[in-house]
Structures are given as C-alpha cells and as structure tokens.
Amino acid sequence: MRNSARHKRLKLKSEINVVPYIDVMLVLLIIFMVTAPMLNANVDVNLPQANAKSLQDKKEPVIVSVDSQGQMYLTLGTSKKEPIDANALKVKVGAFVQQNPDVSVLVAGDRDGKYDGVYQVLALLQQAGVAKVGLMSAPESGNPNGRP
C-alpha cells in the first residue's frame, strides 16, 4: 500500500497565479500616486516677446479695454472709449458683430491688471457670438523685461 502512494502521480494545476501581478500593480499605483503631484508643482512660464507687425484692417476694430481695477471700456469703430458693464457689453458687441461679421474684435488688458478681468471679457465676447478675438499689446521695448 505504501508503494502505491509513493508512485501516485501529482496532478498538474492549470491555473494562473495572479498574486505577483497584484503586488506589482499595487507598487506601481503607489509610485504614480506619489510622483503625479510633483509633475505639476511649480511651472515657470516665460512668455516670449516679439516684434510682430500690426494687423492692417480696412474697418475700424471693436476694442474692449480692461483697466487694472477690472473696469471695462468699449470703443466701437471711431467712437470714444466709454465705460460699460458686462450685460451692456454683450448686447452692444453682439449687435455690432451681427451687423458687421468681418469686423475685428480686440481685447486690451492693463499690464498691471489681473488676468481675471481679461478672462471675463473673453467669456462675455464668446456669449455675444464673437467667433474670433485678438489680444492687443504694445510694441516691444528695448528692455528684456518689457517695461519702459
């Protein structure tokens, strides 16, 4: 009887052992969770300065200006710069662009102002139905930091 137990063949298992794969995946998950916040921590952006030629347009552009306090001003064609609020800006620019679809719409933001003011103007112009918006800038000065 002992002889038969000794000669009994072991049956092979045809199963995949997934425990090592789970261990590797957990280690990779921890590594990615630790390194992902480090990738976007501090990104320094140095904006380029260029001597770009100004655009020549046959029609007078619509200019929306934002000062350093966030106050908006509108210049339609050859009219004077006038202070305007958000709702009136949407209505006036939307009507003007519907009448003249080829007119250029430009946004001029104060250098010392917050980006939020310019962003709000861009969102208002999109709501007014303006398809293309340009950003105005002053020509490059001789100083490397762009300040006169």
UniProtKB/TrEMBL annotation:
Is Membrane one of the keywords UniProt gives this record? yes
Q: Which Gene3D superfamilies match?
A: 3.30.420.270
Task: Please report the record's description of how this protein sits within the membrane.
Answer: Single-pass membrane protein
Q: What are the TM regions of this chain, as residue ranges?
A: 21-39
> Which terms are listed as keywords in the entry?
Cell cycle, Cell division, Cell inner membrane, Cell membrane, Membrane, Transmembrane, Transmembrane helix
Q: What is one Pfam family matched by this protein?
A: ExbD
Location comes to: Cell inner membrane; Cell membrane
Subunit annotation = The Tol-Pal system is composed of five core proteins: the inner membrane proteins TolA, TolQ and TolR, the periplasmic protein TolB and the outer membrane protein Pal. They form a network linking the inner and outer membranes and the peptidoglycan layer.
- Tell me its family: Belongs to the ExbD/TolR family.
Q: What is the protein's known function? A: Part of the Tol-Pal system, which plays a role in outer membrane invagination during cell division and is important for maintaining outer membrane integrity.
| Entry protein name | Tol-Pal system protein TolR
Say which species the protein is native to.
Answer: Dyella acidiphila
